[in-house]
Amino acid sequence: MVTEPEAWLLGNIDGHTDALMPVAHALVQARHELTALARDTSALEIRAAPGGAAPIGFHLAHIAGSLDRLFTYARCESLDPAQLEYLRREAEFAAQRSKDALFEATLARIDVCLTTLKETPDHVLPEPRPVGRGELPSTVRGLFLHAAEHTTMHVGQIRTTLKVIRGRA
Question: Whole-prediction pTM value?
């Protein structure tokens, strides 16, 4: 359990602008919690699917994949064939990778995203960005905010799944 203050209570994060500070706080908090979970979660727990719920491994693979996809859209790029393949086979990839590989890939993707946030000038945040094959409308800011909230949601699902697995729900 996280006993120190959450990231948003620790002040500004160096290199991040005020406009993206909530996104940076959310991703830093997710990274902190996932780092602790990597130490405290067994390889068997990563694979468990209590009551048919998604395994923790899937949530990890999905966090990494969704961050990659959302930040690709924020750059106004389409998904490449490797990203589309990952999307189609996310559950399979999660099942094939080790606990350590899943956590390492997810933490590395969060680090890439935090660097991207630092490098993104505020003036591009309201720029429109098409999302997905349907080219649904969003903005750079909207994509970053969704990436943060989506990641936070899946970290919460990991914690809840772990409680169920351990019989503490």
Answer: 0.94
